Amino acid sequence: MILADKRDYSIGYRKHYAAYEKMNKRNADIKSRRLLLIYCVECGLKYRLLNKWGMDNPKELLGKTKEELDADDKRKREVLSSHNLEKILKELGQQGVFKFPALKTIHNEIVSAETYHQLYRYGIRTGESKESKERELENSLNNVLEWLREGV
After folding, report:
1. pLDDT digit string, tens, across residues 20-45
2. What is the C-alpha separation between 63 and 69, in angstroms, rounded?
3. Which residues contact 4 (CB under 8 A, 6 or more apart)?
């Protein structure tokens, strides 16, 4: 994991959101737009994590070996390095508040909150029948954004 501090996460959150909004207004490519939304949410959540833990910079947490970390720091590092939006939300006390649908690719693989970014980064198709679930995902991500706006 490359080191990012609170300022980096805040900048990523704002820039990805601004790009998402521009693409949304132009009705631009839906997969690219959703990828930006996922990264926007992830940056905002990680900003909130650092804020909760009283860290501006997780350099010490990320720079230590596993042997040097206590159980609490191991958990924090695992959550911070994760792309799993549900895991991050759980750490922030928001478990179950936001619903993320499981999507199925045309290759019959299940995509969860941990792998959404891969689905959209690679442009993997889900099939027309899944579009309603993808809209549900986008709505859920926008609900997370509403909650994030209070503190990023």
Report:
1. 999 989 988 889 999 999 999 999 99
2. 10
3. 12, 46, 58
